[in-house]
Write a structure and sequence with these properties.
The chain is an all-alpha fold. It has 9 helices and no strands.
Length: 210
């Protein structure tokens, strides 16, 4: 996956965008009624789950890991493992940050209304360039971040895919459950997270020697 050509990545990106567009026109309204959770107790659970896609805890973990690994690499220069771990944590942080920033810019430009404005805006409500949270539905930032983190780690430790990818999928679904995003938003967030991380890896891995 990490060695996919630019043309293949472009094809996958186009596929993700097309599926998102298809969902926008045909599925979002139907899926909205099926996935949103109205029961308070169940919603509270999904609100905890949705934090799997929060960049806050990822930044804390990755910065702490980088600091710890860098110190140990300095204290034990004979052990290359710590220097490698330090560089790997930089890659994962960069992958999550860059894809997240890209998504934030796109959603601000597009200005799609959130599902919690469904009664007044419906699934086709837009207010481009407003850069307000209530009009920042497409793409899903939490989904982008969840998949970016998962794929970045899996590129380094492939065996973790059986844990991290399912968690990223659950995080994406949770965004619909808590009425924060439509299916099209989640599909596009997934696409950006996966494609973006592979591009960052291809650019950064040779420089970091990971």
């Amino acid at each position: 996956m990490k060695h996919l050509s630019k043309s293949r990545l472009a094809a996958y990106a186009a596929l993700g965008f097309s599926l998102s567009l298809l969902s926008f026109f045909l599925l979002d309204e139907r899926i909205y009624h099926l996935t949103r959770v109205t029961d308070k107790d169940a919603r509270d659970i999904w609100l905890v789950i949705t934090d799997l896609g929060s960049s806050g805890w990822m930044a804390i973990v990755l910065i702490s890991l980088w600091v710890t690994a860098s110190i140990l690499a300095w204290l034990r220069p004979e052990n290359p493992r710590w220097k490698l771990l330090s560089r790997q944590s930089v890659f994962v942080f960069a992958a999550v940050a860059l894809t997240g920033i890209f998504t934030m810019i796109v959603k601000g430009i597009v200005g799609r209304a959130r599902p919690y404005l469904f009664d007044t805006e419906g699934p086709f409500g837009f207010d481009p360039f407003v850069f307000q949270s209530s009009y920042a539905s497409w793409p899903s930032g939490h989904t982008t971040t969840a998949f970016a983190f998962a794929v970045a780690v899996v590129l380094l430790v492939p065996r973790l895919k059986y844990i991290l990818i399912p968690l990223a999928i659950v995080a994406g679904y949770s965004r619909m459950a808590v009425n924060a995003h439509y299916l099209a938003d989640v599909i596009m967030g997934t696409t950006i997270g996966i494609i973006g991380v592979i591009l960052v890896y291809q650019w950064l891995a040779p420089k970091l020697k990971i």
